[in-house]
Amino acid sequence: MGSTACMKVSQAYIADPAIEAEALSRHYKGQPEPAVDRFSLTIAKGEFYGLLGPNGAGKTTIMSMLAGLQPPDSGAVRIHGMRYGRHTRLIQSKIGFVPQELALYQRLTGMENIWYFARLLGLRGKEIKSRIEQSLEFCQLQDRARQPVATYSGGMKRRLNLAIGLLNDPWILFLDEPTVGVDTQSRHLIHQQLRRLQQTGTTILYTTHYLEEAQELCSRVGILDQGRILKEGAPELLLQRSEYQNLEEIFLELTGNALRDH
Ligand SMILES: Nc1ncnc2c1ncn2[C@@H]1O[C@H](COP(=O)(O)OP(=O)(O)OP(=O)(O)O)[C@@H](O)[C@H]1O
């Protein structure tokens, strides 16, 4: 299914969208092909949407355009009906973005990192104190809160990164591969917390290479390659309508077996 068709299908069913992307394109200088090619998508409020694709498919570029971190060459994004430009400040105050690269100060403690980012958001006094406590509890780092982040395991850093992305109580949470390189226990906690967030109404858009995880967590997934959506839908519906047993088989059928080394 082409991306324009996906947009029409989505729009017909989604009356109250959180994210609308219309024909987004992005061509990096010096690259032979566009990273994102007329990408369209509508995500409902409270949805948990997984963007799936091989290395270089365009997931991070799409996510950063949706979160307003880089402008598209062409196309439009609306967040809760508002466009970037006129409403950038309001939109960004309601978005949480957890990047693939850890955005933490290694020499500061976990608590100091949370404090620093909370101050940047303008939190002060009692509010900041209770937010730090909530965040530490959320990522289960109370016992290690006063130790430098440099001493944390990969899973602890990912959990802290996630808690910091939530400091502004976002309407929409963007997560770029939030469980990469973490152990089973940390991954389990991250899954549990993401489910809770969705239950309380947060819209979540995330990328992952773990297809089993996406099948379990996402209300809808989009499989993309070369910056375009090839197929999208609820995982159980995609499986019902195919002869395949799991998302990985569908993914390989659509994107092929060729290695994506670049
Ligand atoms: N800043 C940049 N300058 C030039 N090319 C870029 C830049 N960022 C991404 N690209 C290229 O754009 C394409 C899409 O990259 P992107 O990082 O969006 O894909 P991805 O699906 O997130 O990949 P991965 O799974 O490896 O993180 C790739 O071909 C990549 O090499």
From TrEMBL:
Look up the domain of life of the source.
Bacteria
- Which PROSITE patterns does the annotation name? ABC_TRANSPORTER_1 (PS00211), ABC_TRANSPORTER_2 (PS50893)
Q: Which residues form the ABC transporter domain?
A: 19-251
User: What SUPFAM superfamilies would the database entry show?
Assistant: P-loop containing nucleoside triphosphate hydrolases
Which InterPro entries does the record associate with it? AAA+_ATPase, ABC_transporter-like_ATP-bd, ABC_transporter-like_CS, P-loop_NTPase
Q: Which GO terms describe its molecular function?
A: ATP binding; ATP hydrolysis activity
The alphabetical list of record keywords is: ATP-binding, Nucleotide-binding
**Name listed for the protein in its UniProt record:** ABC transporter ATP-binding protein
